[in-house]
Specification:
InterPro entries: G1P_thy_trans_s, NTP_transferase_dom, Nucleotide-diphossugar_trans. The protein has about 280 residues and is α/β, with parallel strands linked by helices. It has a single domain, classed as Spore Coat Polysaccharide Biosynthesis Protein SpsA, Chain A (Alpha-Beta Complex), CATH 3.90.550. The protein is about 30% helix and about 25% strand. It is built from 11 helices and 14 strands. Strands 1, 4, 5, 6, 8, 11, 12 and 13 form an 8-stranded mixed beta sheet that branches. The protein has a two-stranded antiparallel sheet with strand order 2-3. The longest helix has 18 residues, at about 225-245.
Length: about 280
């Protein structure tokens, strides 16, 4: 399975913070935001990843993440000229995906919790599509899943005025290779975007969509507003200071997944010692 991180968009809901800097490069406590979705894909065992961003931000992402070889991964880069919807990621990345299965994660989504790694790895071989449902207070902001009495998903609606449930679809999706053909066949919505909800509907109509409800042990945070950006940083700070363990530490994930060895981890840690981040990496050894 390959992975795609969609880190484009204008970030206009966070202006002026993001007028000159991509949202996904903003700090979430002690790391750039993109470290969190990147670490999630790596936790799933995915090592070949396409990062889609804007032309203005492309060089900054390359400077931060390089080609991925330092983490035992392979990073590719592509440009989304305009924010035309999440499903466009599969059109932009169709040559990258080729005949593989693919996971898409949004560059501003953070996942953390007990059993997350196992859950992710169990979904690396989808026969159709696999998405999640997560209980939220304000489902109007998201794609919303409706379930029947047996717990089977029966509808998905994007940003509904009258949600039929409180279960939002978080920004991580697993698909078989048919997603490329499906994405190429959907029409722009009234917002002028290629909606990921329409991709999920296509799988649902074929009877090939699995929706797993995330339990209370897993936290999902998105960072699309000033308050949610601050809350995400505070969440990471509290957990890290309380437990002494880092969230979204890509070097740690690479080491524990066996992508890199001790010598490579020490090399990554050396220039980061002054901040304390490198000391944390050295303590892993």
């Amino acid at each position: 399975m390959k992975g795609i991180i969609l880190a484009g968009g204008t970030g206009s809901r966070l202006w002026p913070l993001t007028k000159a800097l991509s949202k996904q490069l903003m700090p979430i406590y002690d790391k750039p935001m993109i470290y969190y979705p990147l670490s999630t894909l790596m936790l799933a065992g995915i090592r070949e990843i396409l990062i889609i961003t804007t032309e203005d931000d492309l060089d900054l992402f390359k400077k931060l993440l390089l080609d991925g070889s330092q983490l035992g991964c392979k990073f590719n880069y592509a440009v989304q000229n305009e924010p035309k919807g999440l499903a466009e990621a599969f059109i932009i990345g169709r040559e990258f995906v080729a005949d593989s299965k693919v996971a898409l994660i949004l560059g501003d989504n953070i996942f953390y919790g007990s059993g997350l790694e196992t859950l992710l790895k169990n979904n690396r071989d989808p026969k159709g599509g696999i998405i999640y449902g997560y209980h939220v207070n304000n489902p109007k902001r998201y794609g919303v899943v409706e379930f029947d009495e047996s717990g089977k998903a029966i509808s998905i609606v994007e940003k509904p005025d009258h949600p039929k449930s409180n279960f939002a679809v978080p920004g991580i999706y697993f698909y078989d290779n048919e997603v490329i053909k499906i994405a190429q066949g959907i029409r722009p919505s009234e917002r002028g975007e290629l909606e990921i909800t329409d991709v999920n509907k296509a799988y649902l109509n074929k009877g090939k969509l699995q929706v797993t409800v995330l339990d209370k042990g897993i936290a999902w945070l998105d960072t699309g507003t000033f308050s949610s950006l601050m809350q995400a940083s505070q969440f990471v700070q509290v957990i890290e200071e309380r437990q002494g363990l880092k969230i979204g530490c890509i070097e740690e994930v690479a080491y524990k997944q066996g992508f890199i060895n001790e010598i490579q981890l020490k090399k990554l840690a050396a220039p980061l010692l002054k901040s304390g981040y490198g000391e944390y990496l050295m303590n892993l050894i």
